[in-house]
Amino acid sequence: MSNLLTKHEIARLTGAAAENAEEQKRILDANRIPYVLKKDRSPALTWEMVNQATLARGATKSGSPGVNLPPGFNLGAAS
Prior knowledge:
Layout: H1 7-14, H2 21-30, E1 36-37, E2 43-44, H3 47-57
Antiparallel strand pairs: 1-2
């Protein structure tokens, strides 16, 4: 079993369609969540990467001070 999020999990996390890798990367970048690029230039990441970035920011939910989350961004999916 892979530790990487599936395309559907990344889409659910970011709120951007699975086919829209550029928008997913923009949202991940805006929220300082690290990822690596796969051969097809789509983002690849683990829940650990999401959790560590979230903890480093001190954010646990949408609307926290200093957090730039777009509508639909679901940090609750990380827990």
